[in-house]
Amino acid sequence: MTLSNGVSYLAIPGPSVFPERVLRAMHRMSPNIYEGELPDMMPDLLRRLKDIARTKHHLAIYIANGHGVWEAAVANTLAPGDRVLVPANGSFAKDWAMIAERMGVSAEIMDFGKRSPIDLDRVTARLKADTDGNIKAVLAVHTDTSTGIRNDIAATRAAIDAASHPALLMADCMASLGCDRFEMDAWGVDVMVAGSQKGLMTPPGVGFVYFNDKADRVRDRMARVSYYWDWRTRVEPDFFYQYFAGTAPTQHLYGLREALLMIEEEGLEAVWRRHEILSRAIWAAFDHWGQNGPLEINMADPAFRSHSITSLRAGSNKATMLRQWCENRAGLTLGIGLGMVDSGREWHHFFRLGHMGHISAQMILGALATIEAGMKAVDMPHVPGGIEKAAEVIADNA
């Protein structure tokens, strides 16, 4: 017997739920890619994208996923033999380091484990020790999608400045842009990468590299940047196709325009606030359910919890049993415990709940109620009553 018939809910940490408005905007015949509506809408699209990141600087758009824009950011700023410092508390920081190393860059990983924020005093100390300026950039992930840890990017800039070090600050906002507060210019970020499929509520396939003048001056010293990854022609193109080094992702652009309009209509501050309140409701439920163990939120300190994804520890393979029950019996798809263990069957002990982009109170309360039903069904140890705690947070803030 299954009760999953009807509208399913993909509650993984991206791709996120796509609004009907976005899907309808994309469902159209292909437009003229040489003149007319599509080229004419680019300046306004770029303005809205910059507003989301709180920047007045430059933006290059790529037909790529997150791995693609990682590579684009490296290609324009780092040469083979350069060194980067990568403070890591999740698998995605390490993956960015891997991309850099595949491009000939030496990546020095400062591993803070999977449950702790970055120790910024250690970052400052390491940069102070780099008296020859061998470290060219610090690669920091705002929200690591594997661990659910939200790092303090503004404080990371302060840590670099405290060392009086010239390194670029490069931030990964794949899982945070449009969900968590991010202010590129005010926080002193030199390069930022993001994608369409999470907080921006558009299907995967479009990636973004934001960069300031300092980063663009570093681009001047590069002996060679491939035609496709070079951000220069994408920023100030003579022809529309140069925004994308070829054919544009036409339907994606229409969907993205609609998503950005929805964010503008709600107001970016309100979007951030909505994500914060719904996150606190989720935390209230899981903290209550897990008060006697073994269920627990991976990041214990709420100050460092992401407002777009919550990573959970079940303490047993009940996590996979819960995921399977929720999807097959109730129509709710939860995320796997990505990157929490190196190997073995212990990965069945973890799961994640994505709460980014097009989400509402009824969606979150429905997901949490389904999870509680699933925990009862698979006999996962928990303290009943988490739904009431989540409802209190929403009732007090709606």
Characterization of this structure:
With about 400 residues, this protein is α/β, with parallel strands linked by helices. It has 2 domains: about 10-15 and about 265-395, Aspartate Aminotransferase, domain 1 (Alpha-Beta Complex); about 30-265, Type I PLP-dependent aspartate aminotransferase-like (Major domain) (Aspartate Aminotransferase, domain 2, 3-Layer(aba) Sandwich). It is about 40% helix and about 15% strand. The protein contains 14 helices and 14 strands. The chain has helices spanning about 20-25, 35-40, 40-55, 65-75, 90-100, 120-130, 155-160, 215-220, 230-235, 250-265, 270-290, 320-330, 360-375, 385-395; strands spanning about 10, 60, 85-90, 105-110, 135-140, 145, 150, 170, 190-195, 205-210, 295, 310-315, 330-335, 350-355. The strands form 3 sheets. The chain has a 7-stranded mixed β-sheet, sandwiched between helices. Strand 6 (about 145) and strand 7 form a beta hairpin. Helix 1 packs antiparallel against helix 10 (about 250-265). It starts with 8 loop residues before the first strand and ends with a helix. The mean pLDDT is about 95.
